[in-house]
Fold this sequence. Notes:
Blueprint: H1 8-11, H2 24-36, E1 42-47, E2 54-62, E3 68-76, E4 84-90, H3 105-108, E5 112-116, H4 156-173, E6 177-187, H5 189-200, E7 206-210, H6 217-223, H7 229-238, H8 243-251, H9 255-261, E8 266-271, H10 279-288, E9 301-306, H11 316-330
Parallel strand pairs: 4-5, 4-6, 6-7, 7-8, 8-9
Antiparallel strand pairs: 1-2, 2-3, 3-5
Helix pairs in contact: 2-4, 4-5, 5-9, 9-10
Amino acid sequence: xxxxxxxxxxxxxxxxxxxxPHDFDAFWQDTLAQSRDSGTEVSIGAPDxxxxxxxxxxxxxxxxxxxPIKAWYARPTAAPDADLACIVQLAGYGGGRGxxxxxxxxxxxxxxxxxxxxRGQGSNWGTGGDTADTAPAGPATPGFxxxxxxxxxxxxxxxxxxxxxxxxDAAATLPGVDSSRLVFAGMSQGGGxxxxxxxxxxxxxxxxxxxxxxxxxxxxxxxxxxxxxAEITRYLSVHRDVDQQVFNTLSYFDGVNFAKRAVAPSLxxxxxxxxxxxxxxVFAAYNWYGEHGVQAGSPRKDMVVYPYNDHEGGDSxxxxxxxxxxxxxxx
Length: 331
């Protein structure tokens, strides 16, 4: 590992102009309206029998186009009747929701927790996923980054971002959840999804983007050879004449454009030796965060910098900081 990106003082001032489609807001308003009209069903299963102090149940809710999305809903058994703040979360790239026993940390800290499966993923690391991605994709590199990349309507992350927003919708209806205290958290891919949700759901109580992925795509593919961004580079090395079309699609999914629209207080992290999500791409989103809400007062945002870490970032040290942040913010 090495410091291969901009110096920290330059990163703190880095606010690049990132392409934004003229119909960005209309695209996402129409996308969400279509999916919300496709179904609102939420079902809850029985508690996992192996856990005595944390109640973990399978949840299925209607995601993109009404398709069923699996999740785990966890809460402490010591507070059976309390309405708790709820953390909604997605996994990093290639991971799925795993097993019920994987989701006890937030409940042990006194929160409700909804861990949403990532459609089509869950077979690269961890303990699995259970939600299929049924949409046709066309030619793509191995992985998920270029599935449907020639058209924003078909792009893979359109479905994932909607699933995440519908996960927040579902969390608000779960028994024992205080719908006024919904938080979205995620690391890497989950952090990029957190920014998308922050830009699409103005009622979030907080956002926790941890070394977020899916930010400033043009910068990312120019400065890192690491996957998953390298999937885009590989695709363009074969499809040599569609780069403008590809980056036009990606502009609808760039975390910078969602960050501008966010209004929730946020706690971020960045690792300065991160080869997967270069620090400049993270700061590009962070430095624009809340820009569209400046007239009403900029939202609180804090960045934790890990100077000597790669993509693991702060790991559990960051979770401790998140717990302190939420305790201060939510009481």
